[in-house]
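QA checklist item 7 of 12: single-chain prediction sanity check.
[x] sequence parsed
[x] length recorded as 660
[x] structure emitted
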Amino acid sequence: MCGIVGAHDLREQRTLSGERLWRMAASLQHRGPDDCFAWAAKGIAMATQRLSIQDIEHGRQPISDVSGRVWASQNGEIFNASELRSELTLQGHCFRSHCDTEIWPALYVAKGVDAFERVRGQFAVAIWDSADRTLLLARDRIGICPLYYTVADGMLLWASEIKGLLASGLITAEADLAGLDHVFSLFAAGTQRTAFRNIYSLWPGHYVRVQRGALRVHRYWDLNFPKAGEERVVESESRLVDELSACLSTAVTRRFASDGPVASYLSGGLDSTLIVGMAKALRPAQSMTAFSVGFDGAGPDERPRSVRSAALLGAELEVLIPTPLQILQTLPRVITAVEGPIMDTANACLLLLAERVAARGFKVVLTGEGADEAMGGYVWHKTARLLQALAGLHRSIPDWLRSGLSWLATPGTPQPVFGNHFGALRPSLLDLYEPLSRARWLLYSDAMAEAVRDHNPFTELDILPDRMKHWAPLHQSLYLEYKLMLPGHLLLGKGDRVSMHSGVEARYPFLDEDFVSFASNLSPRYKLRGLREKWLLRELAARVLPKEIANPPKSMFKANPLCLLGPTPRWIDQLVSSESLQRTGYFSVPKVHHEQSLQRLLPASVPRRFVVDGSYTTMVMTQLWHHLFLGGGLCELPSWSAPHPQPDHPFLFIGQSHAV
């Protein structure tokens, strides 16, 4: 992957200055530390901080077709580049490198906007067609690679990270209260709205077209499921396992495309263990290095399983064991990377793990993210089945249980209404979001509560309830996971942003387009059978993994919440001081201090602690985010600032520069 930035004057009269463009690119140097190049013409400027993974010598970006008509700058990888290059060559297109980014100009000339559907990979790309003066910004189907944009002073600016936009000097960082509320409501960042006012994330599976000053967002792909009862059912389940094996083998093989070595994460759980097992089976002569996280008091320790799995699979394992204090000390870098509040301290562990991967000389790492969303791996799907069974005894029992939990954990808080967005549907994920989201009212100031009282975050997601109503209940929830938790939490805070902070590209075999299509068409019986999650995946594991590690219990990688980590650094106390809380205005001083006292009095197992501890972590991280990006002054930590141009900065233009 790389870091891409750019600017387009909507009136096509001005070109962003080379100094501003350099500052935008330099703010993303961590994403692409290997080189930086730019291209500019009247009205358009593009730059790329490159992480060299394929065709290291000739893969400079931005890059054009041989005619110079179409220019492209890409963050990510095209995994079917070889097939596309062969197809386009037969059609008469010429290529000067083996860099996959060079595919984009030729593919766009051949297919127009249908090019996005043809690509298999993880990408965020900017394409400029100088012939018809059209700019396209596009993002991969699932949302692995980030892309942000804003309009300032008549210019459309884009960047792989928000820091690139702020570094332009054309915009001022301001809080978007609804964007902050989105995180507290759904514990994931928005896939369009961000924590910054007037800065937007491009939805996964969408592209922006800008022509003659008009900006329009278009969907080119959406996840789909068959109608309930019409899902794929097979006579031979053994043959279905064969199909899954072939599909996943292709997905893993595609993600080994690299001129350097490829490592893997290994937690000892089913998903990452299966990826390492298949990688070893596909490349038996190649050594495999795996990385894992263990805890000594900072969270549930998965070391015994990861060590055993690595030994049985013949992989070298390197284990990171962060202390509670290391986790706390890493959080400022996490928020700088993520550019918004988080609720999961495990993000810090993954940032530290990516640093370890980079220190060992790896630029690419495989990970098992995406299997739970494809195969029904989360616990709330089982909870939904249990509630359905209880409803058979009395239809009101599920509502009684939900009300009882709310009374115990968050008494006196308003009943969430965002589930109304789905009409008569009730995806099982709501049983997680509704109680957790109520905790925010126990922390918000009166002004914040009033500002977001009518905010419904589901209206800002790319979700189509009219389609969902035709699907099986399990598939309705899987759709939400793909739309919300996967891109807004796992791929952002635990994926791209913490791995690319160290110049490490994470690749996801379970998010391969063909695997997602294969899984989505299957009947729910192959995903959740009884109360056994990921049934078909476990059948495959039984074939390809040693018996001792083929059927591990489901667990979620997590570290302890903020209030259970210590010793507490001084800057955290400063962030939640009365002065700092009053200065930001998001949170009530008495409410925050009341929750702090309850944390000292109540055991972590009681419902209130279970529900509120995550929101408390998010509250502290919101204060930290405000300090880092909105002017500082809340604690002793330095705030973020854009890099300053150097007289001899190594910034080279490819082609002609018209910057003014």
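[x] summary fact logged: The CA atoms of residues 408 and 607 lie 6 Å apart.
[ ] second reviewer sign-off
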